[in-house]
Amino acid sequence: MQAFEKKALLLMRRAEKEGRDILYEHEVYEILKGAGVKVPRYTFINKDQRPPAAKEIVLKVVSPYILHKTEAGGVKIVEKDNAQKAIRSMLGSIPRTYAAWIEKNRKKAPVVYQDLKGEALKKAIRKDIIGFLAVEKVDFEKQVGHELLIGLKWDDAFGHVLAYSVGGTRVHFYADELGKENCVSLTATKFADKKIMSDMVRRPFFSKILSGELRGESIVIDEKKMIDTLLAFKDIANTFSDLNSDYYIKEMEVNPFVASKGNLVAIDGNLRFARSDFRKVKKPLHKIKNLLDPETVGIVGVSAKNMTPATVIHRKLLDAGLKKENIMILHPRETKINGCRCFKDLDGLKKHLGKKRLDTFIVGAPAIAPPGANAGDIVKRIITDNIAESMTIISSGFGETSKGKQTSKEIKELLFDMRDKKNDTPLINGPNTIGVKYYNKSTVFTPWGKSSYNGIGKKNVSTVCQSGAFMVMSLSDFAYAVDPPVVVAVGNQIDVTVSEFLEFLMHDKNITVFGLYIEGLQPFDGLCLARTIRKARNAGNDVIIYKAGRTKDGSDATKSHTASTAGSYETFRAIMEEAGAYVASDIEEYHSILTIMSLLSDTVLNRRSGYPQLAGMSNAGFEKCALADATYDIDGTRLFEIATLSEKTKIKVENLFTDKGISDLIDTDKIFDMGPSANDEVFELTQRMLLEDINVDACVFANVPETPSVMTLSGFNDEDINSPDSIIQRMIKIRQIYKKPFVASLESGYKYQPAVDLLIQGGVPVFRHVDLATRYLGRYLRYRMR
Question: What SS3 state is found at 455?
Fold first, then answer.
């Protein structure tokens, strides 16, 4: 047991007996001291005691309902001779000041005071003051970087999240003006080590002030002392988490820590705790195989007449080659549908199966229906009678309505209780899922005939999506570029989660790129997801995530959609990126980067220091300018440096252009402007020279395809984009030969879509504008080189 742990347990137990879920500031100091964090000298005094002798002290009110003392007028710096007088004065002024603040901020007021007004409110505030804290005044410079905030907050998905930022009274001002990403560092304490802590310290804008890197500045705080303080918070968090202790810390914050005489000193502190209530049982995750790749299937919701979602799934399973005798349907009237046997109820099906179990059961019954026929009752019966190894619940209405939420709760409790007693249970995907596609087998209930999905593209991607609509939309959008062998829609995650599917799919050697669409996470699933992403990255795989619910409105929308906790987007992004994921800012970026990840997965990067060296070429001057501008991202972050070509390449290029009689027509200053005269062969030979240059790390090949000198449009004059002599086929050949990453840009609209499709099929990532091509390539390379 660590030095602080025993003390903290005693303090929490005492507070609990007194009806508190908070610790007072001096109690927080006790824990910090035990963890090796510097605190000022302090003494707690009740309302009737005299303060200790000191030259100058800070008096702070102590009350279970005054956490932010400034708003209550509860902090005063006094000379030693005036301390007693100051306490008497504060006992009179605090109730008035705090009551006035509460009258203006009712929603922020403690619950115990929200219904009180006037004298009754003031009287209650005074009654709750138990004393004052007399604290040594710590001298420090009140300037940016000399006041810091370090805090812990419990997140249901990630456990304790550690925050490090600028401190003092202007925390929110700096975050709003400069952006949270520049002011705050976040990490999950479960994974934090010295390297991560060092990155946390160096990330915010004020880090150079503390380290003395700015001109004329000296070191304010040694980095090691800051890292040690963060590690102390980590130790406290991991000791008092919902996984490890009788109590867990919900929130703990010191604002500010101050830089004083080369040390980091806490001059405030609050802590909120709760009883641990986390329960965990082992899920039969090996049954994901049964769910994805079943040989025997039960289905409810199939119609002999109408095209219901379950009917679509039934036909897809038959098309995949499942034997008719292995597909069993629950139907109140029919005896056979499409040659598959029907059973009136689960009793008949169970009798037919005997001791056997189905690999999976597709539940497509309505959530609201008579007892025994609704989806909830069917699911419970399949669980208790152990009829199937797994289930996919395509029915909605479980997490979106109050009755549905109750049914979901009952199913979760049934699964937990049975697993807690070591009983075998099915593994459940959904509810509110559109289904899964696992190689040739599909339980996706949208008809392929209405999809743009065509089965053409690179087959090294798997996607796991919380929205089925997002999943099928992505399949359509990826046509020609990517053909994911495995796609999973998880819906409400009543049982198996995003991270658990990812963990399973990671072992598929065909998959090297994983795309995730996430709206919210189940308890502790953020930790599991981060851990799995680390494994995936260490194995050489790429992971990209699009997270919905980044704004309050978006968060509210995700809650109503999939009944999950969206949580803080900043927390999610920081922890996922730290684990090794690419977190996309929007859907377009998600699709674009995932496509590049897939098509360029076999490329080899030159991991030189500094920025990647980019070579670019186009046949249009405006594209040359746009390409150069796009070497910086839209936020001003540099992505590339323009490569300086080797003398060998310069000579080869000059000889080529001279031989072709176009040397006076081409601008070779940094980014090549080939002009309208360069033909297909010149483009190919120039591209080869740039890719072979030792100084070049990556290339962007852009083209405005309307010039008559290149073959980009079949049917126009004698042009044929399928000809090996066309610029399209030449670039595809180059992609097959060279392992240096490059992307292409092809402008000018719909007429050139066939050329785009051919290039993408040939493994070349193509964009319709050169700035997008350049920026997405730069972001991808930055990710790959992390």
Answer: coil
- For every residue of 514-574, DSSP letters joined together read EEEEES-B-TTHHHHHHHHHHHHHHTT-EEEEEE---SHHHHHHHHHHH--B---HHHHHH
The residue range of the domain holding 648 is 613-784
Residue 59 counted as domain residue: yes
> Locate tokens 């003051």: which residue?
129
Asked if 104 and 188 sit in the same domain, the reply is: no
Q: Which residues face 461 on adjacent strands? A: 513
CB neighbourhood size of 95 (10 A): 22
**Which two tokens mark 590?**
């998600």
DSSP H or E run through 169: none
Same domain for 53 and 188?
A: no
Which domain CATH number covers 244? 3.30.470.20
Which CATH number is 456's domain given?
Answer: 3.40.50.261
Say how far apart CA 698 and CA 691 lie, in whole Å: 7
Domain count, the chain: 5
Q: Is the pLDDT of residue 51 over 90?
A: no
pTM of the model: 0.92
As a whole number of angstroms, the distance between CA 35 and CA 28 comes to: 11
**Same domain, yes or no, for 179 and 205?**
yes
Tens digits of residue pLDDT in 509-558 = 999 999 999 999 999 999 999 999 999 999 999 999 999 987 665 555 54
Number of H helices, E strands in the chain: 26, 31
Name the DSSP class of 168.
G
Residues 265 and 297 in one domain: no
Instruction: Give the model confidence (pLDDT) of 532-545 as tens digits.
Output: 999 999 999 999 99
Residues 712 and 570 in one domain: no
> What pLDDT was estimated at residue 399?
74
Q: How many residues does the chain have?
A: 786
* Residue for token pair 């120039």: 686
Which residues lie closer than 8 Å to 519 by C-beta, 6 or more apart? 466, 467, 547, 548, 549, 558, 561, 562, 564, 566
